[in-house]
Hints:
This protein is an alpha/beta fold.
Amino acid sequence: MTYQIAVLPGDGIGPEIIEQAVRVLSALKLPLEIKQAPVGGTAYDQFGHPLPPETLATAQASHAILFGAVGDWKYDKLPRAHRPEQAILGLRKALGLFANLRPAILYPELANASSLKPEIVSGLDILILRELTGDIYFGQPRGTRDAPDGPFAGEPEGFDTMRYAKSEVSRIAHVGFQTARKRSGKLCSVDKANVLETSQFWRDVVLEVAKEYPDVELTHMYVDNAAMQLVRAPREFDVIVTGNLFGDILSDEAAMLTGSIGMLPSASLNETGQGLYEPSHGSAPDIAGQGVANPLATILSAAMMLRHSLNEDASANRIEAAVRAVLASGLRTADIYEPGTTKVGTAQMGDAVLEALSQG
Ligand code: NAD
């Protein structure tokens, strides 16, 4: 069995960081067939579209997609449909990627990078699971109109619709319980059930799904409290499952707990386990081409790909252990550098991970 991997480097630092992740994947000697394809602004420049049909076909035919980053300010004036970021939305839609996994890990060596006190965040290892294709972001109807009723009747108003179907909630809940099972067995479902009907419905469905996972400890928390607890005692959490809107905000909050955007991987999965794996950061046009970008978020995304789409857990663990070893040895890219450590560039960081892998 050969795994088909679509590699989409994209724009800005995308190609630099992807190069290092591909070196790491290749060193594992797994049966991988890697196909590269253009995406984002680079694809627009060549083919007039940020997600050309050939790229989409390559992605659809693959077991997993390793994605760099897209975007550059020079494309900001293009019509929305041609902007680089539309490639990600197009891939999510075409592949039905409804489950977004964002781990927030703070390696003890990087505890000073967080804006919180080291004793609160050091060793943090949580995972935010965000529903990605429903909720108020996609609910119809939406738009602007003259308010039909209420105290502002007749005035122009903007409106959106928050809605979740039962199957949408239950499939993300299943991913939540299964993910919790693979970790510490704790799942916290975040909602706003005290105010929102959609959230009460969410909670009822999660409780129903919970009956199938008696071994997982389920708790519920209102989103405003979750936002507070994440900065007060973030290590109390393990896996958090939540809807699209709340997950958007909480996953960024959790990312900032670590203080190092260059370290954070992410995964977006569909019902068959096919997934898109990408660093949580963008294309960083301000440092593109300088060879200074941190490739670790992308290398760790490759590890997530091995674990979640290819079931190659042992190889995923090897990559993560190699990254830990490199950090312990004191090597840092500029974004995570502090006095007393050794500053290295993108390729040297890749070299160091490869070296640690060969010794692991
Ligand atoms: P960004 O994440 O690209 O950069 C924010 C800051 O973090 C910059 O100072 C950058 O230099 C730094 N940074 C990011 N990744 C780094 C890394 N690996 N190593 C070292 N430093 C790193 O966000 P932005 O500047 O707001 O956006 C830039 C472009 O990226 C925009 O066009 C935006 O639309 C796009 N974007 C793309 C994605 C994606 O592809 N998934 C996500 C977010 C933003």
